[in-house]
Design brief:
By secondary structure, the protein is mainly beta. The protein has a five-stranded antiparallel β-sheet. Strands 5-4-8-9 form a four-stranded antiparallel β-sheet, with no helix packed on it. Strand 6 and strand 7 form a beta hairpin.
Length: about 120
């Protein structure tokens, strides 16, 4: 059931908007990049919302959120450490992300001890 839910949620993802359940299915996350699409070798930011489920009734504010990104085929992550702030009206902000290589990145959003993972093809110069 989880994989079906994740597959269906991920099928709606675009180069600037990602949504899906965390691996433990306790949270549903929505992520929007700015600018869109994510640029190559330039700083970008993310707006992140976490919900108890996919009905999106109320964005959670009493949770810990963090962000990372890796290139699984290369075995490394970003050279930058994003700075998180918020929440403001249910939105967490991650600033200072930069994807310094073209190729497949795995965007990782952690909510408490669970993670949502989104595969993103980056970018063109």
């Amino acid at each position: 059931m989880f994989f079906l839910s994740l597959l269906l949620a991920c099928s709606e993802n675009t180069p600037d908007f990602f949504e899906g359940f965390t691996d433990g299915e306790s949270y549903f996350v929505q992520v929007k990049s700015n600018p869109t699409p994510i640029p190559f070798n330039e700083y970008f930011s993310l707006e992140i919302q976490a919900f108890e489920n996919d009905d999106l009734a109320l964005a959670l504010e009493n949770v810990t959120v963090s962000v990372n990104a890796t290139m699984p085929s290369h075995g490394h992550g970003m050279n930058e450490n994003p700075v998180l702030s918020g929440p403001e009206n249910g939105i967490f902000f991650a600033e200072g992300l930069k994807w310094h290589m073209e190729g497949e990145w795995e965007l990782l959003i952690f909510v408490e001890t669970e993670k949502a993972s989104f595969t993103v093809e980056c970018c063109t110069e």
